Amino acid sequence: MIELKRYQSGDAALWDQFLLSSRADTFLFLRKYMDYHADRFSDHSFLIYRKGKLHGVLPGNSFGSTFFSHQGLTYGGLVLPTAVTATEVLYIFNLLNEKLSEDGIEKVIYKPLPYIYQKLPAQEDVYALFKLGAVKIGCNLSSTIYQRQKIQFTESRKSGIRKSKQANISIETSVDFKEFWTILENTLQNRHKTKPAHTVDEISLLQKLFPENIRLHVAMHGSETVAGCVMYIMEQVVHVQYISANEKGKQTGALDLLFDKLINEVYLDFPVFDFGSSTVGLGEFLNESLIFQKEGFGGRGTLYEIYQYSL
Questions:
Q1: Which residues contact 167 (CB under 8 A, 6 or more apart)?
Q2: Residues 150 and 242 both lie in one domain
Q3: Are 216 and 206 in contact (CB under 8 A)?
Q4: CB half-sphere exposure, 80, CA atoms < 13 A
Q5: Which of 39, 175, 302, 303 allows an S-S link to 142, with CB 3.0 to 4.6 Å?
Q6: How far apart are CA 256 and CA 156, in angstroms?
Q7: Is pLDDT of 232 > 90?
Q8: The CATH number of the domain where 73 resides is what?
Q9: What pTM was computed for the model?
Q10: Of all helices (H) and strands (E), which one includes residue 207?
């Protein structure tokens, strides 16, 4: 009664309609978001049908003989309806592995959807991975706040808020990413010799495509942007996609004032506030100064896991 079909561009509306009614709380799997970088990845997504009706989707891409779910996204995994059972999920994985083998795939890299992005419990796929003998190869650590069970800010964060107010830092919402992107790119280059996952043109395009889901908040010293963050907004979760401050922003505690406003005012009614990962190298290195800052706001550990198994 269950069958898998490869995604085609004509399936986009059906895919998106299913996603919005599923157990997943994310807009990253909407085709407009996935396809903005379609030229970089060879799409290998699947539609899952049960009795002829769409019963699930799996975002994915392939590179060589490896299937990823999905290489261009922070997380991936099966997206399923409320009615699916554990037995069905095990069967879906059997079908998936058969299809992938037919496509010449030898290895699967699978990133399950973190539990905070699940409207209802949806970890049957992680159990299926266990049954398949999958090995955890990545374990990135994020910092998350439950708004109804908040932890008080530490004194160092409160001190930064006071300093920011004394320096007349103001908090604004903006759609002009260029000035903040200069700060972000300089910080990443100087500290880590890396670049943001998105160019300024890409994030500007995505914000226009998803104006209700992507917002830029900045801290201003007069007319100068000194710090900021890009927020990804879901139904239940708000996620910090990018954070950065220049030297003046750091000296004035601008990020402390910014996050005080976002956590305690702007996004107070969202159940979950997620700061994002403080790890690199598949989780092998923990940026202790970065996570110290996030924990100072009350964030506590959420895992973004990555598994691998062979066919």
A1: 221, 252, 253, 254
A2: yes
A3: no
A4: 21
A5: 302
A6: 9
A7: yes
A8: 3.40.630.30
A9: 0.95
A10: helix 200-209
Query: Considering 133, 163, 186, which residue would you say is the last residue of a domain?
Result: 133
| Domain shared by 235 and 175, yes or no | yes
Residue range 163-198, pLDDT digits in tens: 999 999 999 999 989 999 999 999 999 887 889 989
Q: Which residue has the tokens 């900021």?
A: 228
Length of the chain: 311
Rounded to whole angstroms, how far apart are CA atoms 248 and 75? 34
- H or E, element range at 62: strand 61-63
| Cβ neighbours of residue 148 closer than 8 Å, sequence gap 6 or more | 271
Q: Report the number of distinct structural domains present in the chain.
A: 2
Whether pLDDT at 125 is above 90:
yes
Q: CA torsion sign, 87 to 92 to 303 to 22? A: negative
Distance CA 30, CA 18 (A): 10
Please name the amino acid found at residue 251.
Q
Q: Is the pLDDT of residue 18 over 80?
A: yes
- C-alpha 202: how far from its chain's center? 16
Out of 112, 133, 154, a domain closes at 133
